[in-house]
Design a protein that fits this description.
heterodimer; A: alpha/beta; six-stranded mixed β-sheet; 11 helices; 37% helix; globular; B: 263 residues; mainly alpha; 78% helix
Chain lengths: 317, 263
Amino acid sequence: MIDVHELSKTYRVPVKEPGLAGSLRSLLRRQTRDVQAVAQVSFRIEQGERVGFLGPNGAGKTTTLKMLAGLLHPSSGRVEVLGLRPQDRPTELLRQITLVMGQKQQLLWDLPPTETFELNRAMFDLDRAEWRRTLDELIEMLSLQALLDKPVRNLSLGERMKCELCAALLHRPRVLFLDEPTIGLDVEMQAQVRRFIAQVNEAMGATVILTSHYMQDIAALTPRLLIIDQGRLRYDGPRDALAQRIAPERRISVRGSHPALVERGFREEQGRMVADVPTGGANRVLAEVLGLLPEAELGVEEIPLDEVMARYFRARP
Amino acid sequence: MRILRLARVLAALLRVALMNAAAWRASFLVELLVGASSSVGVVLPLFFVYQHAEQVAGWALPEALMVTAFFLLLQGLVGLLIEPNLSAVVEGVRTGALDYTVLKPVDAMLVSSLQRVAPAKAWDVLAGMGLLAWSAAQLPAPGPGGVILAALLFLAGLLAVYAIWILVICTSFWFVRVDNLRFLLGAALDAGRWPVDVYKGWLRLLLTVVVPVALVTSFPVLALRGEADATMLIQAFGASALLLLAARRTWLAALRHYTSASS
């Protein structure tokens, strides 16, 4: 399905000294240096999988994604998507993949979204009846009905993202590359987009490869994680296994402020007393707390994914 | 089948480009007015010059007007179809908006060079056609061979200009901001409004070989005067084929260099 072997990408970037003098000097003699954005990354993704790319800013996630989609040519290594080389941009492949970028748009800015949908029908050479069926389905899933005849520039960020998703899926792609699809959206809209992506994955059997800074996206959507840091693949495996390894504790919280719990290892956090305890010891701590405070309102949960990731990146060499 | 599909894509692009141009009513109307006045501005200087001379470099007024007519046609078609796309592609490379064009299963060169139109430039095309008809009526009627030859020479020239425009667009993949090149090219095309014999030496060479604007404006008139032959036509198509090939290869190399501005 997707086969990546020793994939690397090096960019040549201009180097400029600060200030006006530096600008003038670089105007006369341009200096560049090579930056390795992705270094010898290898992995395989099977049809229908949902995979999350994680890593700090500038780690190489988007560069990897763009090489998978065929936008960037690898400096070395091999990529195959559906058995084809994406950098050759074979028509057969372009008809089966899609890329949605949270910070870029394909919608025609001054026209209603329907015009972009219509243009994509021509570009992908879709049969009108089939296109109409898919469009109706997407309009229904994304609740787009009220937005269809407004110029795109008058839509809100969230409304625009929903229309972007619709435009990107009209050709029923088998592979979805999503680069921060929920960036800048409010909580409710993020949830809607997440639900929709999960639905598309199930209904169309599409493979989903997602990068996001919102751990809720990853937690809700991608059971498998690829962690990329400084261009290298640091982890490839189940999300839960990573969480278990990095943060094997359970988080016990008690509603309200209870100074008596501080000496038992609890800390105060947003109106609650919180302690992270080893999984095996949770019952003992719960019993102790109830012994001390029989009326206490208790909660037990896993360590949230963003904290797991923060710990992961703090602990890296 | 492929041609038919391409035609459908181009029709869809043209439709969107026209709707885009019409989306801002006031701007659309102002541009129409400006377009009309600029067409008039192209013709006027010729009358001033010919007040003082019967002939310039062997060209009488109706012939020179005919060159201007072809120049207006060229300027109109370039302004209508080609030029608005240069800024679109340059902007697309700078902002990364080109990503979505590159990911469509259609030829990215064709789409990016024909995604915008400036309908106001249609005035130049109309004015050019009008002027061509008027000046032709002042001159002895050319034979059918001359007319066909003139049309073909004009077409070859247009293809050459299109190829040069693609080459200019391609430079933006390496240098990102190349808006200024547009003005340079505009100035070179502008020289085509005068009969080619007005220019001497290297300037003439520049206008017939490097930026073959004379091919589009002067040579068709020579054909209509019966002074062109098949050799000229073969040379013209040879030149534009070479330019198109160079443009295509450069475009493909440019795409390999595309860095897709970061998001």
